């Protein structure tokens, strides 16, 4: 397999917290293959994302199945994720899951209504802000808010084998 094919394998791995593939969520940065070693660069959607260990495990498992015998290194580029990195397919998947992505005026993902009200400062995570829709009564989160893009000066390596 070449690096593009390996990137497609990683793209098919879903985030464990939000069921969206890593490429569509904007988490996958790059995949390289050098001397039998696969290096995957990822960026979490927030600095203290509790799912990084599970994501790295899923990535290693998918790559080990697709390309057995290769060494695998997962490199986390903390602070690099931005809401603009979410693809159109990712935005659609997030909407179907009851989320909206920051960057535009919030609309209800269920009824597409504009009559929404912020329901708190933080949702289930620091980068999720809860909203209530007055039109259909649904609650939803907008992801990609201020808590997502805290910066660290250098990438953090982890998940090597």
Write the topology of this structure.
Blueprint: H1 3-11, E1 28-34, E2 37-42, H2 52-66, E3 71-76, H3 88-96, E4 99-101, E5 116-118, E6 128-133, E7 139-143, E8 156-158
Parallel strand pairs: 2-3, 4-7
Antiparallel strand pairs: 1-2, 3-8, 5-6, 6-7
Report mean pLDDT, rounded to a whole number: 86
Report the β-strand fraction as a percent range. 15-25%
Backbone structural class: alpha/beta
Number of distinct beta strands? 8
Helix proportion range: 10-25%
- Assembly category: single chain
What features would you describe in this structure?
By secondary structure, this protein is of the alpha/beta class. 20% of the residues lie in helices and 24% in strands. It is built from three helices and eight strands; from the N terminus they run H-E-E-H-E-H-E-E-E-E-E. It has a four-stranded mixed beta sheet with strand order 1-2-3-8, with helices on one face. A four-stranded mixed beta sheet has the order 4-7-6-5.
């Amino acid at each position: 397999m070449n690096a593009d094919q390996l990137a497609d394998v990683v793209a098919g791995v879903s985030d464990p917290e939000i069921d969206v593939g890593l490429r569509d969520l904007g988490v996958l940065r790059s995949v390289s293959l050098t001397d039998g070693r696969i290096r995957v660069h990822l960026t979490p959607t927030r600095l203290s994302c509790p799912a990084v260990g599970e994501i790295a495990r899923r990535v290693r498992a998918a790559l080990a199945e697709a390309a057995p015998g290769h060494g695998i290194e997962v490199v986390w580029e903390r602070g690099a994720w931005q809401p603009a990195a979410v693809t159109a397919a990712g935005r659609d998947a997030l909407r179907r899951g009851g989320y909206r992505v920051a960057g535009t005026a919030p609309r209800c993902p269920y009824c597409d209504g504009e009559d929404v009200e912020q329901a708190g400062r933080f949702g289930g995570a620091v980068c999720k802000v809860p909203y209530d829709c007055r039109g259909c009564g649904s609650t939803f989160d907008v992801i990609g808010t201020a808590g997502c893009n805290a910066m660290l000066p250098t990438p953090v390596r982890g998940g090597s084998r």
